Amino acid sequence: MGNSLTMTHKKLSTMELEVNRQVARITLTREKALNAMNQQFFDDISSCLSMLENEQALKALIIIGQGDGFSVGADLKNLPVGNDLDLGKALRENFEPLILGLKKLPFPTIAAVNGYAAGAGMGLMLGCDFTIAARSAQFVQAFINIALVPDAGSTYFLPRLIGHARATEMMMLGEPISAQRAFEMGMIYKVVDDGELDVEADILAKKLSQKPTSVLMQIRELLDASGENSLVDQLNAEADAQKIAGTHDNFKEGVCAFNEKRTPKFE
Q: The whole model's pTM is what?
């Protein structure tokens, strides 16, 4: 991102990137298409993530959609349907870099969901560390309704969040669920009134900005690995991560603040 925090606003064809102090925000702006993902969308978000991935000074990223939807996933308009269509190639070239790009960011990510999060739009949301949803938001694994399998990481993230049975329900029935039910299922962090979505996302970003970011990223890595690791492997991973955390000045500050009964000031 070059001079990083000196850049405050970048407008692209399908989204806008803003940096306000230590928090970045990507606003999806294809509102007339419910922020459906076309090729320009993938080019734009790849550009945004590339600009952000080396920004160690940033503390959080918020992703939010304009209009009546967070994102309804892939743009099906003008999609050529036939034997020559290779959707696997499209996934490898566009969707996989999107999800992996989110995971590479060196700070926490927040999806602020209004309206529909559907299909790969849910994948984008699930790839974030936190999801805050407006009360009117709805979530749907819509792939089955057009005879496709879930993608954009949905089959990885969703059963880990809500369990096999609930993930099967969402993916095989393709029916929308409310924000409240998504919260009760453990899929999202918080439900808020529609008019409070922006404010609540900012509040969460501020909370995260006061934590030691490097440790937040270690926690992300440990959580992502835990589903595949044995108990012994996970205990070893925790020990390796703790060794690194214990050598950082933030640990010293945390202990001092605890002993002095004050709020720590992490780097």
A: 0.93
Domain edges within the chain = 4-209, 213-259
Query: Which pLDDT tens digits describe the chain residue by residue (267 residues)?
Result: 444 554 578 999 999 999 988 999 999 999 999 999 999 999 999 999 999 998 888 999 999 999 999 999 999 886 666 667 788 998 999 999 999 999 999 999 999 999 999 999 999 999 999 999 999 999 999 999 999 999 999 999 999 999 999 999 999 999 999 999 999 999 999 999 999 999 999 999 999 999 999 999 999 999 999 989 999 999 999 999 999 999 999 999 999 999 999 999 888
Strand (E) or helix (H) holding 20: strand 15-20
Give CA separation, 28 vs 15, 75, 123, 189, in Å.
4, 14, 15, 21
Q: What is the DSSP letter of 36?
A: -
Query: What is the C-alpha separation between 129 and 84, in angstroms, rounded?
Result: 36
Cα–Cα dist 141/154, whole Å: 8
Mention the CATH class of domain 4-209. alpha beta
Topology of domain 213-259, CATH:
Lyase 2-enoyl-coa Hydratase; Chain  A, domain 2 (1.10.12)
Beta bridge partners of 191: 133
Residue ranges with strand state E in 108-230: 109-113, 116-118, 130-134, 138-140, 177-178, 190-192
C-alpha span between 97 and 80 (Å, rounded): 22
Integer Cα distance of 205 and 39 in angstroms: 29
The sheet carrying 9-11 orders its strands as 9-11, 15-20, 23-28, 60-65, 109-113, 130-134, 190-192
Tell me whether strands 177-178 and 9-11 are parallel, antiparallel or unpaired: unpaired
